[in-house]
């Protein structure tokens, strides 16, 4: 077997559905963080803003549920097991460094490192 074939087995090309689910997962985190930053007045810890009051917490929970319901509906249209596939993709995206990089780029600007 050729080295490229081994590489393709280890890292298969994602399907169109998998790419769409990845984009839905990414959109969920970016939309909810944008709403959180518009509503919350608490501190920003580790790149994420926290609610200062119970009212803020309720607002961000309601918004997160609405966004998740919309993403789940789209995932269900893509594939019969789309909701479960989206859940897996959201976990993968949240655990990856890409989520933190996307949030930092969108809300904090590009990070610059000095020697």
Write up this protein.
The protein has helices spanning 3-10, 16-39, 54-78, 82-95, 97-108; strands spanning 44-45, 48-49. The chain has 115 residues and is mostly helical. It has one domain (15-108). β1 (44-45) and β2 form a beta hairpin. α2 runs antiparallel to α3 (54-78), α2 crosses α5 (97-108) and α3 (54-78) packs across α4. The longest helix has 25 residues, at 54-78. It is flat, with a radius of gyration of 17 Å. Residues 110-115 have low confidence and may be disordered.
DSSP summary: helix tally: 5
Q: Count of DSSP E strands? A: 2
Count of all domains: 1
Instruction: Please give the alpha-carbon distance between the first and last residues.
Output: 45 Å
Low-confidence stretches: 110-115
* Radius of gyration from CA coordinates: 17 Å
Helix-strand sequence: HHEEHHH
pLDDT averaged residue by residue: 84
The best one-word shape is flat
Which structural class should the secondary elements be placed in? mainly alpha
Question: Helices and strands in order, then pairings?
Answer:
Blueprint: H1 3-10, H2 16-39, E1 44-45, E2 48-49, H3 54-78, H4 82-95, H5 97-108
Helix pairs in contact: 2-3, 2-4, 2-5, 3-4
Short description:
This protein has one domain (15-108).
Name its key features.
115 residues, 5 helices, 2 strands, 3% strand, flat
């Amino acid at each position: 077997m050729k080295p490229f074939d081994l590489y393709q087995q280890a890292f298969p090309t994602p399907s169109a559905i998998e790419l769409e689910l990845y984009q839905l997962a990414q959109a969920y985190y970016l939309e909810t963080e944008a709403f959180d930053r518009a509503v919350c007045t608490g501190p920003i810890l580790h790149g994420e803003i926290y609610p200062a009051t119970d009212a803020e917490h309720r607002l961000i929970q309601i918004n997160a549920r609405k966004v998740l319901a919309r993403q789940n509906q789209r995932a269900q249209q893509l594939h019969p097991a789309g909701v479960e596939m989206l859940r897996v993709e959201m976990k993968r995206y949240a655990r990856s460094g890409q989520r933190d990089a996307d949030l930092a780029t969108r809300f904090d600007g590009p990070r610059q490192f000095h020697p």
